[in-house]
Amino acid sequence: MRRSFFHRVRLILLCIVSLSAVHFIDDPEFSKQVIERFRAYNQQRPTEKVYIHTDRDAYLIGETIWLKGYLMNGTTHEADSVSRVLYVDLVDPVARRIRLRTQLRTTAGYAPGQLFLPDSIAAGTYQLRGYTNFMRNYPDAYFFSKTITILGSDGTLTGTANATTTRPDVQFLPEGGQLVEGIESRVAFKAVNASGQSMPVEGFVLNAKKDTVIGFASTHLGMGYFTINPELGQTYTASVRLRDGTTLSYPLPAVQTQGVVMQIDNLSHKDNMKVYVRHNKTSADATAKLTLFAQTRGQIIHVVTIPMAKKSSVIQLPRNTFPEGISQLTLFDETHKPVSERLVFINKNEQISIGLTSDKKTYKNREKVDLTITTTNAQGKPIAANLSLAAVDARLAPEVDSTGATILSHLLLSSDLTGTVEQPNYYFDPAHTDRWLQIDLLLMTQGWRRFVWTDVLAGTIPPINQPVERGLSLTGRVVRPNQKDIGGKVKLTFLLVKRDSTRDFLIGDTDELGNYGAYDLDFTDTTTVMIQGTKGKANRTLAISLDQLLLPTVTSTQVPYNPLEFRRDELAEFIRRTKEYQEIERQIRRNGEVLLQAVTVKAKKYEERDSRVIYGTPDASVKFNQQNTSGRLTILDVIQGQIAGVQVIGNGFNARVQIRGAANFNGPVSPLFVLDGMPMDLQSILGISVQDVDRVDVLKGASAAIYGSRASGGVISILTKRGGPNNDLALAAAPGTLIAKLPGYAPVREFYAPRYDVRKPEQTGPSDRRPDYRTTLFWAPMIQTDVEGKATVSFFTSDAKTDIRLRAEGITIGGMPGVGRAVVKVE
Q1: Which H or E element spans position 98?
Q2: In sequence order, which ranges of 712-763 are alpha helices (DSSP H)?
Q3: How far apart are CA 127 and CA 79, in angstroms?
Q4: How far apart, in whole angstroms, are the C-alpha atoms of residue 524 and residue 791?
Q5: Residue 414 — φ and ψ, nearest 5°?
Q6: Considering 353, 428, 551, 596, which has the largest number of Cβ atoms within 10 A of its Cβ?
Q7: What are phi and psi of 341, to 5 degrees?
Q8: Closest listed residue to residue 526, CA positions, set 500, 552, 506, 551
Q9: Cellular location of this protein (predicted)?
Q10: Which phi and psi (to 5°) does residue 133 adopt?
Q11: Is 636 helix (H, G, I), strand (E, B) or coil?
Q12: What would the pLDDT profile of 582-618 be if each residue is shown by its tens digit?
């Protein structure tokens, strides 16, 4: 059975191979405490990860972004199906606003969908981000995010803004976190320009006397490192020289007189990672110890105690005991404070290979391509996987190169780091023989902060404010109009009117503070929601808010660097061909409209049936009007004495009702109350304003049988004015009522790809042939390979003589990601 999202973190205590006087944990008090509290923290704050595969990275206004979301367990990377709503936002990073938003239904961890780019959106560079409601318990730095370029009809990017500063950001980061007097340390550095793009730098380090200590130069994407032995009382400054000859000064972190330095060697030995720990501290306690804690995505891997009597120690950690991906090593001093930290990457080659094999080497225009897809593990054995595949015209859809983000690089690297990782797939391409050296350098310079150690050690676990959504939600609060607490529970009635006119009713209460929530709802497309509150004898003193009317905040201020570059001729052709295709689509729609307008249909006028009424003619009915509702408090007050055989006992909110003849051996049987087609209890009915009611129907005896055994006491059917089939709920809201239109799950459209092996009846000759120069030729978001690791798909080439770039991404149910690429030539 597949483990659930709330998979409990296992504690793994493994033997340590020591090169010095380092001892395996013998259950000292602090070690036991940190293990227990870390485990408790992660059990109560599990994580999810999201990845979104799009058909391409650049679009013209008016096009559609075809996409598929992958939702995974943040600890095990298994395909996750607990959260069932995936939010996808198109964020304008300049204005820090969400311009477009859609909600995708997630099934078994997969969420296909699309995002249409309307004419109202400005051209520019945007962030496409994906997340679940549960992920909002963490900083949005851990949402999935990728750069999307939207071009105007003239090829401009009017929505972007230039950075206001030109000074590069150059950071100097001692390995482990600090420089300590007299202990040789490595210092990593990273340089980015004002747009957030890496830039090469070189320079030298000066001491307080302006003497040169050491030179340095970046080796990869503005990153590099040098070694320094800090001296007593010295301060150090880096003089950085840019490519244009400019020289800038940056201070190095201050030197600590006492401390601990941790250095990691994750490259020289095939099987083990070496951890070097050195310090210059003195302790009166001869038994004082340092504690090394290693964890991967919330899984405790090693806990080691190190005697402080040794000034220098080396610990070897078997690499095969770690899961694949990023691990965090934290060193605690003798006072149990975290003093040094380092990230490392563990490669175990636990990925799938995706093979894309076409039936021919070259194709003609409008020829069918049969594609065979295979998925295998590292040992070459077949394995089933769920994939998405895009086939695009390589000339019209430029790609940076093979170093862009993929599901592989996101899952194993970017999703566990804060900040932008430039060229993330560089570190997973075997063609780059230096990739392990460069990923080690990256992890010396990139941040990681899913939790704060002070919270873990104090047992302070931040609350989970955003629940897991197993369906759509309606949450909010009921207060007084002056925003003060209402003082006690409020009875709520929810009415959801869907696009197809079907209706759902819900009833419930707020908590004592006025908070409410309706969960696990299921509706598609735009739905009208009415929420009515009742407390006491009047609704006028209620103000209802709905969280879903508020978009999440955008805290990112960095304008994403846009690495896409069109050649001038490619850009012109992309715009021309895309506009041609859009015009063809518009013409098809116009032709359809003209044909429809020319058709004359003769038939009897259809009167829409009221979906709230499943019965025929009622036995009795009372129409509510100004005369009979005046001065009446409840619905029963209005019908009292109006219908023969219906007896109302009492008045106001203490009233009850009985239909004559409705009794059994136990005595009178109460009638079934139905509000706009939905069964309700008497107290909910009494809370409805008489001004909102259109009429009340009464069914007796055999007439009530259509409602089954529940209606043995008869039926009293209340039909409201706003619930009618021809009434727009948004036209008027009664006091204590909120009415809003909300998007449900986005309907999933099927990607249209023409078939040229089937001739349409209306096509009589070559003149009927429409030009086909689509940028995206094929998009298949839900390809499932079988137990033999195989699947087949087919599509047709267009009119362009070009290369068709294929890219498939996906994951196994157990959490192994993979990427496959191929090129199909059209001559």
Answers
A1: strand 97-105
A2: none
A3: 24
A4: 30
A5: -60, -35
A6: 428
A7: -150, 145
A8: 500
A9: Cell outer membrane
A10: -60, -40
A11: helix
A12: 776 666 556 654 444 444 545 555 455 676 788 889 9
